[in-house]
Amino acid sequence: MMLIKRRDFLKVGAAAGAMASLYGCAGGAKKASGHVVVVGGGYGGATIAKYLRMWSEGGVQVTLIERNPTFISCPISNLVIGGMKTMEDITVSYDGLKNTWGVRVVQDDVVGVDAAKKTVSLKTGGSLSYDRLVLSPGVDFMYDQIPGLNNADAQSKILHAWKAGAQTVALRKQLEAMKDGGTYAIAIPKAPYRCPPGPYERACLVADYFKKNKPKSKVVILDANEDVMSKKGLFTKAWADLYKGMIEYRNNSEVKDVEVGTNTAVLEFDKFKADVLNVIPPHRAGDIAAKSGIKLINNRWVDVNWLSMESTSTPGIHILGDAVFPAPTMPKSGHMANQHGKLAAAAIINMLAGQEPNPEPVVMNTCYSFVDSKNVIHVSSVHQYDAATKTVQPVKGAGGVSAARNELEGKVAMGWAKNIWADMLV
Amino acid sequence: MKLFAPIAALCLLAVASTSQAADPYLGRNLAATCANCHGTNGHAVKGSGMDALAGMDKAKILQKLADYKSGDKPASIMHQISKGYTEAQLDLIAGYFAAQK
After folding, report:
1. Are A60 and A386 in contact (CB under 8 A)?
2. N or C: chain A end with fewer CB closer than 10 Å?
3. Nearest to B53 by CA among B62, B41, B68, B65
């Protein structure tokens, strides 16, 4: 089980290689080879697994270790919470990575990294050796910051639903069970957190559900931040136009604790009791990145070299996505994690062929938020590597937000989802 | 072998149109930043409503991008994104997509 099935790699690799050779420049340089282990099959990990196989023309072997049997998307999952989409709509199989691209997909958890020996150990036992390791673990929650939530029972009642999956379904059920006239409260942690506009989108979509089904109900946003963190003008206009009297926004309202029995959020000077209490705790780099001895910033996020996404402290380990200490104005988003995956795939292939990484990488972000079942607003940005500051910097004058909410972008948002899921997984 | 001719030409272009230290795969890497919406190598998912850029004429792609940048072509988002890339980068991107089958 722990041995790589070389025969399978070769079989699929030959097909993928033939296809991939149409895409790349042969160049005459040494061909990349080696074994890359990717931990985490989300937006970052799935993307790099595919692109390593495609761009190396099958020369690099890739093992993807993911704890879930299928990919479930966080973007679009707020529509499941609002009742407009189903879990099936946001679930994609890993079969494309296996069958089309020859990625070895292993359903397991990585419990340890030995950077000196270049091995990872698996929860089910055994270990895998690598030439280069990619960690794309997303985030884990700092439950110690909210003592009442620091146990399994509390976490099963006061949900985050900030990782798509069982919690998405459970939060939807809580909303369905809530009586008309009830209050749903969503608590947002201090930035940086995953998906800056996500909580405000969720408030809109829950309000849309209430408006149509439970019109006496209310949505309260308890934001630990001073102000709305993303698309402020567009969100506040949607709240005023579409949900007047239904959505209440409270800034500087950090949740310090919870009282589980009464669904109460404890703020600094105040308490707030809700019928459905949805607390997104502060987060940090996912466990395997945070506890592997690689350098963190603020004890939370991984410090990376932006030419390669490689750890600044531990050669051979690359980190993608939300776990990374972000470059200036860079959001923690699925779209950005996909871009990290491609930047790192290009760098790793160069490095495995004895070349330097591309000295001028570019990444960009697009994020669509639904303000009701049809209307969408976006934010976009482009980030270019800057040798002077050794990071990627947002391009001045580029990027921006929607002029106004509109239905056209509602269609574009779903087109985005179909294409990015295919770009990662098909 | 016919298929490989445009790729080889693209490789030469990539080397010729940027500084000597440029990565030979720069066009490929830049074009990949578009794939989230326009599909891997410009092969947009059918029925997704996104422009499939694979195999589109290079001059046509560059004209579209120029029109987005200038504001001549109305857009929901491309007027903002196209401004994030240099002319040389857009040239590499258009060339890469045009060479895709």
Report:
1. no
2. N
3. B41
Token readout for A170 is 């459970």
Which has more confidence, B25 or B8? B25
How many residue contacts between A and B have a Cβ separation below 8 Å?
Answer: 140
Q: In this complex, do B22 and A359 lie within 8 Å of one another by their Cβ atoms? A: yes
Q: Is pLDDT of B25 > 80?
A: yes
Element (H, E) at B90: helix B87-98
DSSP B84: G
Q: What is the DSSP letter of B50?
A: P
Distance in angstroms (rounded) separating the CA atoms of residues A397 and B80: 8
ipTM of the complex: 0.92
User: Which pTM value belongs to this model?
Assistant: 0.91
Placement of tokens 């099936």 in the chain = A88
The pLDDT of residue A8 is: 44
Which residues of chain B approach chain A closer than 8 Å at the C-beta? Answer: 3-4, 7-8, 10-11, 14, 21-26, 28-30, 32-33, 35-41, 44-45, 48-50, 76-77, 80-85, 89, 100-101
Question: Can you give chain A as a three-state secondary structure string?
Answer: CCCCCHHHHHHHHHHHHHHHCCCCCCCCCCCCCEEEEEECCCHHHHHHHHHHHHHCCCCEEEEEEECCCCEECCCCHHHHHCCCCCHHHHEECCHHHHHCCCCEEEECCEEEEECCCCEEEECCCCEEECCEEEECCCEEECHHHCHHHCCHHHHHHCECCCCCCHHHHHHHHHHHHCCCCCEEEEEECCCCCCCCCHHHHHHHHHHHHHHHHCCCCEEEEEECCCCCCCCHHHHHHHHHHHCCCCEEEECCCCCCEEEHHHCEEECCCCEEECCEEEECCCEEECHHHHCCCCCEECCCEECEECCCCEECCCCCEEECHHHECCCCCCCCCHHHHHHHHHHHHHHHHHHHCCCCCCCCCEEEEEEEEECCCCCEEEEEEEEEEECCCCEEEECCCCCEECCCCECHHHHHHHHHHHHHHHHHHC
Greatest CA separation for chain B = 41
What is the distance in angstroms between the Cα of B35 and the nearest Cα belonging to chain A?
Answer: 7
Are residues B84 and A399, on separate chains, in Cβ contact within 8 Å? yes
Pick the residue from chain B with its C-alpha nearest to A412. Answer: B49
* Model pLDDT for residues A299-338, shown as the tens digit of each residue: 999 999 999 999 999 999 999 999 999 999 999 999 999 9
Of A198, A193, A197, A195, residue with least CA distance to A281: A193
d(C-alpha A155, C-alpha A169), whole Å: 14
CA gap B92, B25 in Å, rounded: 10
Asked whether A332 and A338 are in contact (CB, 8 A), the reply is no
Residue from A363, A364, A378 nearest A411 by CA: A378
Tokens 């466990």 appear where? A287
